[in-house]
Structure formats: C-alpha cells, structure tokens
Amino acid sequence: MTAESRPASSATPAPARSDRAAADRKSNAGATPDPWEACAKIDYGADRSLAWSVREQVIAVPPEGRAKAEDRLLKALALPGVTAAGRAFVCQMLALIGSARSVPALAPLVRDARTADAARYALEAIPGPEASAALRDALAALSGPVKAGLIGSLAARRDAAAKSALAALKADAAEPPLVREAAARALETLGASA
C-alpha cells in the first residue's frame, strides 16, 4: 500500500499551543479575563467563580509567594471601575496576606465612610504599627456607626497608642452615644481606667 492509498487516520493530532491561542483569538467567546482583575469588579449576587479562584490561590500561597499575591491584589484594588463587592473581596484577601505595603492603598479607603468597613477589615488583620496608625488617623474623618466600628478595630488590635484619642471621644458630649460607648468599651479592652 502506498502513502497515497492508505486511509487517513481518524485521530488528528492535537493542535500546537500557538494554534490553540490563535483559535481562541478567532472564537466568539472572547478572551478569558484575568481573575485577579475580574475579582475587583464582581457584583453582589453575580457569578463569583473568578473570585473563588483568586481566593483559593491566596489561601494556598506559600509565605515566599505572598508579596507577589499582595501586589496582584493591590493592582486590582487600584483598577478603574472597582465595585463595592469587588473592593470588599480584595480587602478580605488582603486581610489574609496583606503587609505594611498594603497600608498606603487602604488608608484613604478607611477615611471614607462608603469604603471604611472593607478597608478596616483588612487593616485590622495586617500586622505592624503602620496599620494601627492608619486606623487612628481615620478617627477624625468618620462619624456614627462607621466610627464606632473603627474604634472596635483599634481595640481588637490592642492599640495602646489610641488610648488618649479614645478617652477624648468617650468624654466628648458632641459625639453620639454609640461612639462614646464604643470608646468606653475599647478603653476597657485596652485596660484603661478612664
């Protein structure tokens, strides 16, 4: 039997990697989004499969890979069009692996009542004096329940440097009762007798 008369094999070889990439560019499905960028744009009630992928990677990252993962999260947090749900998710991930390098990105967020809760969640878990300082510095910028939550974060961090500011808030009649009570509880946690 000659090569021309042999029947063609029904199995075709798998396309080379570059052929698959070219096929993906020609498909109608579009490009696969980067999960690290997509997680910052998720919406409440929407598909979270890409965010779940990022979460699994963050949980599994070894200590020597945390800086790279943190950089990717900070890059996602800085993207235009970050949603409230996306910001909350990224802050949750930074709470797991964030370091002092995350504080400059989180500090402005903790000073804004719309983003303070997500940012303080991350800052509360990040070790180091930089995170405590960012939380203390935000006290004057917030009010009401958001300020009370921030006070709770300072107490949870056992931030002794916040005692004087907390004592002043506890004594300030212009502050709402919720804030004064939160300051009193925080002082008790910190072991103050004021």
Report on the architecture of this protein.
By secondary structure, the protein is mostly helical. It has 11 helices and no strands. The protein starts with 16 loop residues before the first helix and ends with a helix. The model has no long low-confidence stretch (mean pLDDT 88).
Number of helices: 11
The number of strands is 0
- Cα(first) to Cα(last) distance is 100 Å
Class per helix and strand makeup: mainly alpha
Largest sheet: none
Rounded to an integer, what's the Rg over CA atoms?
Answer: 25 Å
pLDDT < 50 runs, ≥5 residues: none
Helix fraction, binned, reads: 55-70%
Average pLDDT for all residues: 88
N-to-C series of helices and strands: HHHHHHHHHHH
Percent strand equals under 5%
* Global shape: elongated
Kindly list the characteristics that best describe this protein:
single chain, 194 residues, mainly alpha, 11 helices
Summarize the SSE layout with pairings.
Elements: H1 17-26, H2 35-38, H3 49-60, H4 66-77, H5 84-97, H6 103-110, H7 116-125, H8 129-138, H9 144-156, H10 163-171, H11 177-190
Helix pairs in contact: 3-5, 4-5, 5-7, 6-7, 6-8, 7-9, 8-9, 9-11, 10-11
At a glance:
This protein is an all-alpha fold and 194 residues long. Helix content is 60%, strand content 0%.
